[in-house]
Amino acid sequence: MLRSLTVKVRPNCLIETPKWCMLGKHTRCYASEQEPNLEPIVMSTDVFDGPKLDVTQPPLITMHGLFGSKQNWRGISKALSQRTNRRIYTVDARNHGESPHTTVHSSASMSADVVAFMKARKLEKACLMGHSMGGRTMMYFALKYPQLTDRLIVVDISPIAVPRSTNEMIRIFDAMINMTVSPSVSMSEGRKLVREQIKQATDSNETVDFIMLNLRKDPQTGVFSWACNAQLLRDFLPKFQQYGSKLSNLPPYTGPTTFICGTHSPYMKRDHWPQILELFPNASIHWLETGHLVHFEQPQQFLSLVGDFINQP
């Protein structure tokens, strides 16, 4: 029988919010006001409404992980729209899926994209959910813009450290950037050839499978390419290791927060939890017997956890 372990920790006292963060009840603080050097993009999005949509409730905005796209969350989002009666948005992060490719890629820039997304839709607050890279973006968002955050769901990623070495990721990106396949071959044959090239860079079949979802073939020229901006992501890879320093000057996010992690995944370490509670003192953690792709491997348990958390008063 599959097991779900839940640990709930609540703070004994409220953490004082710095005066520079204090906002009136109806005041919204958008990225353009706080991050003048960031240039947000318009993210591609899908919208899911259930039959009993309650527009008075904050919607859920979900962001995928590295190499992912909003398509990865279609099934989960449809089910959540039924369970929560909230509008569900899934977005393609910059440099992924159908969203624009840019010259900057960071949690700060992706958070600015989310704030611009909310501003365009006149959203006072939103529930936030992110997996892996998207989880780090949503954690940064909640810490930076708590007044826009209703609650936070982080899927299998720690704000403290990531396990995968930069060297392995560089090999993966180099294999993607340097893939060689003739435009004359079919998509199915091209997939086989590219897959073998990517497998030379990593021992993880799960990673290879996920990356292959990005492979595209131009119907006019036959040229193979990647939906994600592989070169830019490789260039910004060293900055991924600097994530913790970006959080050090931000006050804790004291709103409702939950982490949903896989027991067979290396992306969350149990000994990170005390440090995580310093950042998110009103957080809980759930462990499912899965790898990194928690929502794919145990969708029903995942849906129950997320639905129950969102429906909490």
Automatic annotation (TrEMBL):
Q: A Pfam family matched by this chain, by name? A: Abhydrolase_1
Give me the reactions it catalyses: a 1,3-diacyl-sn-glycerol + H2O = a 1-acyl-sn-glycerol + a fatty acid + H(+); 1-octadecanoyl-2-(9Z-octadecenoyl)-sn-glycerol + H2O = 2-(9Z-octadecenoyl)-glycerol + octadecanoate + H(+); 1-octadecanoyl-2-(5Z,8Z,11Z,14Z-eicosatetraenoyl)-sn-glycerol + H2O = 2-(5Z,8Z,11Z,14Z-eicosatetraenoyl)-glycerol + octadecanoate + H(+); 1-octadecanoyl-2-(4Z,7Z,10Z,13Z,16Z,19Z-docosahexaenoyl)-sn-glycerol + H2O = 2-(4Z,7Z,10Z,13Z,16Z,19Z-docosahexaenoyl)-glycerol + octadecanoate + H(+)
Going by the record, the broad EC class of this enzyme is hydrolase
Instruction: Give the lineage.
Output: Eukaryota, Metazoa, Ecdysozoa, Arthropoda, Hexapoda
- Annotated PANTHER family: PROTEIN ABHD11
Keyword vocabulary terms for this entry: Hydrolase
> Is Cytoplasm a UniProt keyword of this protein?
no
Supply the EC number(s). 3.1.1.116
Any GO CC annotation of this UniProt entry: mitochondrion
Which residue intervals define the domain AB hydrolase-1 in the entry? 58-299
Q: What Gene Ontology molecular function terms does this protein carry?
A: carboxylic ester hydrolase activity
Which SUPFAM superfamilies does the record match to this protein?
alpha/beta-Hydrolases (SSF53474)
What family is reported? Belongs to the AB hydrolase superfamily.
Question: Domain of life of the organism in this record?
Answer: Eukaryota
UniProt key word DNA repair: no
Matching entries from InterPro entries are given as: AB_hydrolase_1 (IPR000073), AB_hydrolase_fold (IPR029058)
Protein name (database record): sn-1-specific diacylglycerol lipase ABHD11
